[in-house]
Specification:
The structure holds two protein chains of two kinds.
Chain A lengths: L5 E7 L2 E7 L22 E8 L2 E8 L8 E6 L7 E8 L4 E7 L6
Antiparallel strand pairs in A: 1-2, 2-5, 3-4, 3-6, 6-7
Chain B lengths: L2 H8 L2 H9 L22 H8 L5 E2 L3 E4 L3 E2 L5 E7 L4 E8 L6 E6 L7 E6 L5 E9 L2 E11 L6
Parallel strand pairs in B: 1-9, 3-9
Antiparallel strand pairs in B: 2-4, 4-7, 5-6, 5-8, 8-9
Helix pairs in contact in B: 1-2
Classes of the chains: A mainly beta, B alpha+beta.
Chain lengths: 107, 152
Amino acid sequence: MANPMRIRAEIRDGLTEVRLLIPHPMESGQRKDENGAPIPAHFITALEIFHRERLVFGAEFGPSVSANPFLRFRFAGAVAGDRLVARWQDNRGDSRRDEATVAAAKR
Amino acid sequence: MDRRTLLQAGGGVGVLGLLAAAGVISPELALAANGRAGFDARELDAALAALGAQDAEAGAALSLSAPDIAEVASAVSIEVVSRVPGTDRIAILVAKNPFPLAAVFSFPEGTQPEVSTRLKMAESAEVIALARAGGRFYMAKKAVSVTIGGCG
């Protein structure tokens, strides 16, 4: 089972800023191990973020996205205390779902 | 049947929707299927064509921020901001990577058409951002030098 995503969501200037860090090797399939054998591709292919069951952000990835992908985006309509749901799926069919709570703006 | 075959066969939602109903995958992620167009292309032009973006226009309303010189080629910070009204999708490509199309982002109404992420670069190359608005594509480019060979 993959490790949980780190999700920070904070209201800033009337929008919710979301920062995600997703633990995942994102192996490109181009590298070789110490014996010269190819390391199989293993990367996230799809990611989605929902707020109140509505999609607010979608992503498709290829193998060029860095290991432990980082993302930042902003959306409208959330208030402090709202829940976000994030899901990803990779090319091996593994997936993970995590939740986060929208925080109030920092003073 | 592999996943790509599934996505192509179903045009995305259809077959995946069935899988979701069967509990094989989550219902939410079934919506993620934009078809993965362009991700299997090994040349930039082929990736642009697969996205339907071969005639993308350059425009100042799309900005792409990336370093001139990337010291860590395995994690190059990229930010794309579109000020083209109606932008619903942004794609980022790295011209000389083995698979140039790195990511495609979807922006439902209410989400700002902007994204920051980190990409691998196999060698010094142009990074290309595309924004789709009203069915048309807009393009911005930035040359990025990598000082040490990255991992493809």
